[in-house]
Amino acid sequence: MRSTDPEGERRRRRAQFLRDLVEARELRDRVQPRRVKVARLRHAMRMRTFRW
User: Fold this and answer.
1) pLDDT, tens digit, 9 for 90 and up, residues 1-11
2) How far apart are alpha carbons 41 and 34 in whole angstroms?
3) Burial per residue of 22-52, b for 16 or more beta-carbon CB atoms within 10 angstroms, e otherwise
4) Distance of alpha carbon 49 from alpha carbon 18, whole angstroms
5) CA–CA dist 36, 28 (Å, integer)
6) pTM (2 decimals)?
7) Taking the CA atoms of the chain, what radius of gyration do you get in angstroms?
8) H helix count then E strand count, the chain
9) Which parts of 1-52 are beta strand (E)?
């Protein structure tokens, strides 16, 4: 068993995952801007109509 802090390890992995996610999203935005715009509008509409 490793002696590293599991919480710190998890947080580091999560930060790396989020960075990759943002990077992938930016890449997708550059590749297909129109589809992304439509998806963003649709998502905004869904968020507005959904009641918490």
Assistant:
1) 555 688 999 99
2) 11
3) eeeeeeeeeeeeeeeeeeeeeeeeeeeeeee
4) 27
5) 8
6) 0.48
7) 17
8) 2, 0
9) none
